[in-house]
Amino acid sequence: MDRHTPMHALPEEIQKMLPEDKVCKYCGVSYLILHEFKAMEEKVKAMEKEMKFYQGSVEREKRLQEKIKSLSQDLEQYKIDNKSKTESKIYFRVMCRLEVEHCQLKEQMPNSQHSVSEPYIGL
Question: How many helices (H) and strands (E) does the chain have?
Answer without folding.
Answer: 3, 0
